[in-house]
Amino acid sequence: QVQLVESGGGLVQAGGSLRLSCAASGRTFSSSAMGWFRQAPGKEREFVARVNWNGSSTYYADSVKGRFTISRDNAKNTVYLQMNSLKPEDTAVYYCARDSPGNSGRYYYTTGARYDYWGQGTQVTVSS
Predict the structure, then answer these.
(1) Rounded CA separation 52/42 (Å)
(2) Sign for the pseudo-dihedral over CA of 123, 24, 116, 100
(3) Is beta strand 122-127 parallel, antiparallel or unpaired with respect to 10-13?
(4) Which whole-number Å values give the CA distances from 81 to 25, 34, 93, 105, 126, in the listed order?
(5) Is 20 in contact with 94 (CB distance < 8 Å)?
(6) Are 19 and 79 in contact (CB under 8 A)?
(7) CA 73 – CA 88 distance, rounded (Å)
(8) Residue 81 bridge partners (DSSP)
(9) CB-count exposure of residue 80 (10 Å: 0-12, 13-18, 19+)
(10) Is the Cβ–Cβ distance between 114 and 108 less than 8 Å?
(11) Residue 125's Cα: distance from chain center in Å?
């Protein structure tokens, strides 16, 4: 069983920065890839970023590439999302999720169905 708890969301002006954290419980965290997704009101959930088990490989949605950085600290069982140069269109609830080893052959890593454990989400609001 894995439990994920996000924190670090809030209200920020356009151009500002936030760092989201996702604290994980469970022994499988350090061997699991992790992802961040977001969902804006009235929109579909969308992939934001993914990091492999040891942090050596990262992937980003085109919309955040160059502005967001995903990282992890396995000693602290935590994955981070550093968000810089924020835009109003980044406003959403942000979720972290565990990339399920059992689903890797069925779904592409940008697909939410591939992930088996999700946090409750943290709200990010960017004002213009």
Answers:
(1) 30
(2) positive
(3) parallel
(4) 18, 11, 13, 26, 16
(5) yes
(6) no
(7) 29
(8) 20, 70
(9) buried
(10) yes
(11) 16
Cβ-proximal residues to 37 (8 Å cutoff; 6+ apart), any chain: 45, 46, 47, 48, 94, 95, 96, 97, 112, 115
Give backbone dihedrals phi and psi of 30, rounded to 5 degrees, phi first. Answer: -70, -15
Length of the chain: 128
**Contact status, residue 112 vs residue 45, Cβ threshold 8 Å:** yes
Count CB atoms within 10 A of the CB of residue 43: 9
Beta-strand ranges (E) seen in the chain are: 3-7, 10-13, 18-25, 34-39, 46-51, 58-60, 68-73, 78-83, 92-99, 115-118, 122-127
**In 3-state terms, what secondary structure has residue 103?**
helix
Compute the distance between CA of residue 89 and CA of residue 29 in angstroms, rounded to an integer.
31
Q: Would you write out the chain's pLDDT as a tens digit for each of its 128 residues? A: 899 999 999 999 999 999 999 999 987 888 999 999 999 999 999 999 999 999 999 999 999 999 999 999 999 999 999 999 999 999 999 999 999 988 888 898 999 999 999 999 999 999 99
